[in-house]
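Researcher: Here's a chain I'd like modeled. Treat it as a single chain, no partners, no ligands.
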Amino acid sequence: MLASALALSAAATGNAQNTPSVAAPPPGSAATQPPPLCNPASIDATFTFANIPAGEQTVSLHFQNQGSTACRLEGQAGASFAVDGHSMAIENCWLCDQQDRPLPYPERQTIDQALLAPGERATVDLHWATTGSSCQWADWADFVVQWALPPTGYLFIPSGWPLRICSSVRSSGYRLGADLPSIATVIDGALRISVLPNPVYSDERATLHVERTDQKAPAGETTGCANLYTVRHGPEIGTRLDPLTTKVSYPIASFTPEQIREDQERAWPSWKRDRMRTCDVGAGWTIVDAEISASDLAQVTHIEWRTALAQPTFLTAAAKFTVLGVDTLPPNWGESAAGIRAGLSVDHATFIEGEKIPLHLRWENVDATEPLGQGECAEPRPILEIQDFEHNVLRTIPMEPMCSGHGWGPFGIDHGKPQRAFYEFTTTELPHPGVYYLVSVWSPHVLYGEAEPSRRRAGKFGGVYSTARSLPVRVEIVAKRNP
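Model: Modeled as a single isolated chain. Structure tokens:
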């Protein structure tokens, strides 16, 4: 979590800091061994960025030691960039001034590392010129730190903030958060966040509801667009800043000088030459909803709201969401039918009229006596059968995936590997409030020309092998109350 006023600072100009972040022990002293290098798993990181100072862009990485013991950040934080899916060669100058000259050795020694006690914060700024005779546009950047083994990346994906690099990437090292002057302000705890559904299961999509706690936009934030971001962390993804698309995003013409210049100078592909951007948070908005996959939600550590001001303010909130494994739900497997079975899970039993019902379909070739086939999109999948409170069938709904495929297959279905799929349907598809029963029904086909299903070679569909049904799952639909 960032402290109030933790921000991009005058260090972005490349000048040395007056207050060193580390006091090095004198040579030959009896000082104890320094703390170990920080483990990225115990480092909480956030991002800020702005067109500061004039004629430059700066990205700041903010690190907090969330471990129980002191640790050490040490060595270069270098940047690499990519545009249109291709990497770019950009020089890095670690511990340099504005003219790409290495700082004097005594200064380099103190700012090449930062010792962090538990809970302490440090920041490193990386900045580059945006004017010059040789410039490149970029879509995203990866900042790699050397104090982690193997080196760990911090992936930075901006939204509506074109990266224009006209010099080497410079940095004047680490600095402790307590010593930072404020330029682009970071206001910690300035967002109120909730998530639906609650609880959320691992194969679902969730809605993040984000509110500014000040409930009003600051003066001057009347044009342009703000942006919403997640900071996510995980062992396979490292730490990354991703734009979060809101449910009310809309196209808007390029409105900042950087966007307009990018439209004029960059060789956009034909589908992007309309010079339109996506606005996720309109200037002055204080409340937005955004959809996110449960797998991504489980990795979220922070939400950041970057205001639409010329010198942006970052409203942030630390976040930790609990995502439950779908296998914690009762599978409601029905009786085996000739070696196949079907199951169905629902998050809970009562829904308000108009609400969506989350369905977790399950099916499995347990030990069928004939080879079974499926298409490349795992079709045919189970269908949903809706029964009334007396178990009379009202209707069936296909649950096939939104997948066009490539015409390959069919392929064999291996024994003993349960399959799952997530769907939603709204209670408005039911006749009226009341009690209903839901059943998953699976009717796979025999596969011809497939002697060894485990090798998954293509064959041909035959007739229906058998039909398996899940146990009926009871749901109750409650009438929506008038406001």
